[in-house]
Every structure is written in C-alpha cells, then in structure tokens.
Amino acid sequence: MTDEAGPWLVVGLGNPGREYAGNRHNVGFMVADLLAARVGARFGRHKRAVAEVAEGRLGFGGPKLVLAKPLTYMNLSGGPVAALSQFYKVPPARVIAVHDELDIGFGQVRVKCGGGEGGHNGLRSMSKSLGTKDYVRVRFGVGRPPGRQDPADYVLSDFSTAERKELDFLVDRAADVVESVILKGVEPTQNLYHGA
User: Fold this and answer.
1) Which residues make up the annotated site Stabilizes the basic form of H active site to accept a proton (predicted)?
2) Which CATH number fits domain 8-194: 3.40.50.1470, 3.30.420.40, 3.40.630.20, 3.30.565.10?
3) pTM for the model
4) Which segments in the chain show pLDDT lower than 50?
5) pLDDT digits over 110-142, tens only?
6) Measured between alpha carbons, how far is 152 from 20 in angstroms, rounded to an integer?
7) Which of 28, 94, 153, 155 could cross-link with 12 by S-S, CB 3.0 to 4.6 Å?
8) What backbone torsions phi and psi does residue 176 show, to the nearest 5 degrees?
9) Which DSSP helix (H) or strand (E) runs through 164?
10) How far is Cα 63 from Cα 81, in angstroms, rounded to an integer?
11) Is position 135 annotated in a ligand binding site?
C-alpha cells in the first residue's frame, strides 16, 4: 500500500478531563487511544490546533494516520478538526469521525459517509467547521437511555458494569472498522461488519 493520496485524519470525539474519561460520550477517545497503541504512536499537544495528535503508519509502508483528540469540549470539536485538516492537507473525504451513537444499540458498530448528525453536537460542529457533511463516521452504538433519562445525561454517564465487560472487545472492533475503511473503503467495510 502507498499513501499517494496523503494522510487520513481519524478524529476520536470526546470531552477532555479525567471526570469524562469513562463516559459513553468519550468512546471516540478510547478508540483513538487504541489505534495509537496499535501503530506505536504517542499523543502530544499539537502546535496549531487545540488537540492532542499522534502520527503513525497503518502497517509497514501503509497509509499515514493522523489520530486526533480535540481538547475543546464536544460541541466545539469542529474548530480543531478543521485546523488539523488544513495543516495536514486532508480533504473531508479522508476524515473519519469516531463517535457514540444513540440510534444504534450497544454492541453494534456502523460506518457511513455523510448524512445527518442525529443531534450529535460533535458532528454538528465538525460539519459546520469543515463546510460539508461528506466525511466518514464510525458510529459506536450506545443505545437509548432507559426510562425517561435525559439523553444528554445518559451520554455523559459511564458505561454500566455489564457494558464494561464487553467494552474492550467493542473498542477493538471499532478500531478494526477504522482500519478497514482506510485499507478497503466504506462499502466493503459495511459489507464486512454490518451483518455482525
């Protein structure tokens, strides 16, 4: 594989700070951390964007990866993403957002390109700052809140004890999906993972 088309920007969406680390809303950070570990990269503060960034290659001589965790809060994620996209010259079609998704049941990971934001403030901010909705989304299902719990409170709460037993496996799967999008494309990835 070569990276003649340039790098990929993989953005894990979440909120900075230890108090948010285990929240459902921070699953994007968890996937970004795992991808960094896989490529042997470490996160460090970027000089031009309010984000932590790790750079590496997917496999020997494979495509260059720029992994990012915006350090703004979720609803302002777009600014750092747009700054990184300009800095690394990454077009929106090669930007992948990894985020929690209320409309998908826990245990499912889905991928799509473009479309609506489903009320997700991080995606809304990204679409506005990038000037397009045509970027890839890796959607990590967290399901709907139980009873009458407010969705905002639900995503800002930690995974349940039962969910935590499966979480490492699912974060691993989401990282596999990101790698598959980069190496194979969106449609082949959908065919591979959406049936499971």
Assistant:
1) 100
2) 3.40.50.1470
3) 0.95
4) 1-3
5) 999 999 998 899 999 999 999 999 999 999 999
6) 13
7) 28
8) -60, -40
9) helix 161-184
10) 19
11) no
